[in-house]
């Protein structure tokens, strides 16, 4: 007997909360369609993030006081933006910039869009796997979901498909996600991608 799941609820005044709920649901939908998540990029992201934290901790708790630790602090200050930008570049590789811009999801001061990446691969010789991206511009209610080939140069690659819709179509006034409607839209986008003919060379 299936257990009744608690409804997913977001703070409608918080873009991060809204996008987190939607992205979490997208992950569930895509994986149930037979595309297991490729967590390698997430692991790289966590590793670089851990290095950033370690650098910050060393800068804070180094046993020498200023100015004796001046050179050490300069090194930490130089390393922090280096690893921060490395994380940005890892998440938003140059081959995707032409489609999705240069927005960095790591540093709030650099970020124009609340942007996340999802990587999926399918163990089939005739499938390149999927890259699913989402964005929710600040001060906007328009959520965009894009499905593209993980290897756009492959002969099996298909043209990307995109869905843009107001989040108000998926949430009640109390911030509860109407999962049936959202699942229908996302599944429709996945099916649309599956039906697309292979791109011409």
Automatic annotation (TrEMBL):
<comment type="function">
    <text>Component of the signal peptidase complex (SPC) which catalyzes the cleavage of N-terminal signal sequences from nascent proteins as they are translocated into the lumen of the endoplasmic reticulum. Enhances the enzymatic activity of SPC and facilitates the interactions between different components of the translocation site.</text>
</comment>
<dbReference type="GO" id="GO:0045047">
    <property type="term" value="P:protein targeting to ER"/>
</dbReference>
<keyword id="KW-1133">Transmembrane helix</keyword>
<keyword id="KW-0472">Membrane</keyword>
<comment type="similarity">
    <text>Belongs to the SPCS2 family.</text>
</comment>
<dbReference type="Pfam" id="PF06703">
    <property type="entry name" value="SPC25"/>
</dbReference>
<keyword id="KW-0256">Endoplasmic reticulum</keyword>
<dbReference type="GO" id="GO:0006465">
    <property type="term" value="P:signal peptide processing"/>
</dbReference>
<dbReference type="GO" id="GO:0005787">
    <property type="term" value="C:signal peptidase complex"/>
</dbReference>
<dbReference type="GO" id="GO:0008233">
    <property type="term" value="F:peptidase activity"/>
</dbReference>
<feature type="transmembrane region" description="Helical">
    <location>
        <begin position="43"/>
        <end position="60"/>
    </location>
</feature>
<keyword id="KW-0812">Transmembrane</keyword>
<protein>
    <recommendedName>
        <fullName>Signal peptidase complex subunit 2</fullName>
    </recommendedName>
</protein>
<dbReference type="InterPro" id="IPR009582">
    <property type="entry name" value="Spc2/SPCS2"/>
</dbReference>
